[in-house]
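Quick question, first post here. What does this chain look like in 3D?
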Amino acid sequence: MANKQKANSIDSAVLNRIYGRGGGGVFTPGDFRDLGSPVAVRLALMRHARAGVIRNLARGLYDYPRKDPQLWVLTPSIDTVANRTIHAMSEAMFFGEVPAFDEILRVVGEFEARFNRGK
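> Answer (accepted):
Ran it through. Tokens below.
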């Protein structure tokens, strides 16, 4: 019984934080690490996604969709998702500074150009 109450407590705390940020927010389980164990947070996010409160955009990346009465559910911009993904990666990195987003795009572009030339 105590585990179920704790799970409900973590679920409520996660949901309160999501609602507090408002629609359009993109987040990862790491944004809730202070609320409980990584497993408990992931389970809470999974339950909220299954209930349709949030969307699972990719593995470990969620959003609380913004809703427009005329356009229905709006998708977050690619910049919002990319910046949040980079921020999440930087939290997990342990080997120095994270390069600027523009630098990452430049390096990926160079790699793509080399790859497409067959070198």
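The two ends are 61 Å apart (CA to CA).
Residues 2-21 form the longest helix (20 residues).
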